[in-house]
Design brief:
The protein has 163 residues and is of the alpha+beta class. The chain is built from four helices and nine strands; from the N terminus they run βββααβββααβββ. α1 runs antiparallel to α2 and α3 runs antiparallel to α4. It starts with a strand and ends with a strand.
Length: 163
């Protein structure tokens, strides 16, 4: 039976090297991309002032290796996912909000469009989501879509993200 010991050594900010030592004293070296961090994502998000900045933000975090994320309106935390089961979670951003039980889809679409045109800021957008029954949204980088969901998990609106 062979014993394998794995050690991870940080070489550059974008890569780490996995070194496997086994009982025959051979080394196996594999490149493995390091996981993105909440700090990197925050830096990209700091450039977002309104919904008009959203497509550029998506491109920035896609370059970091994010393939999918879910943002929860209740407290603003986000779960970010990447390849090879990478996952990181941002902390809550504000005190919990109550999410309306029923969805007002027409008003949500109207106010979302205004937000995307840069007419409202992020805190206003979040409050609007809660008021109109949006519990979360998720972004799929492969499909370049953003999907808004109600409290029951139903997809309320799916939008394409401009590239």
């Amino acid at each position: 039976m062979k014993k394998t010991i794995l050690k991870s050594t940080k070489v550059f900010s974008a890569f780490s090297i996995m070194v496997a030592c086994n009982s025959t004293n051979r080394l196996t070296i594999k490149n493995q991309e390091s996981m993105f961090t909440v700090e990197q994502i925050k830096a990209a998000h700091s450039k977002v002032k309104s919904g008009a900045d959203f497509p550029a933000y998506i491109q920035d975090i896609k370059k970091l290796g994010v393939t999918y994320y879910e943002t929860f309106v209740r407290d603003g935390h986000t779960d970010y996912y990447g390849e090879n089961d990478c996952k990181t979670t941002s902390p809550a951003r504000y005190e919990p909000l109550d999410i309306a039980d029923s969805v007002n889809i027409e008003q949500f679409k109207k106010d979302l469009k205004e937000h995307q045109q840069g007419k409202t800021d992020y805190p206003t957008f979040i409050k609007m989501c809660a008021t109109f029954g949006i519990e979360k949204w998720n972004v799929c980088m492969n499909k370049m879509t953003c999907t808004y969901h109600d409290k029951a998990g139903n997809a309320i609106l799916v939008e394409g993200i401009s590239q």
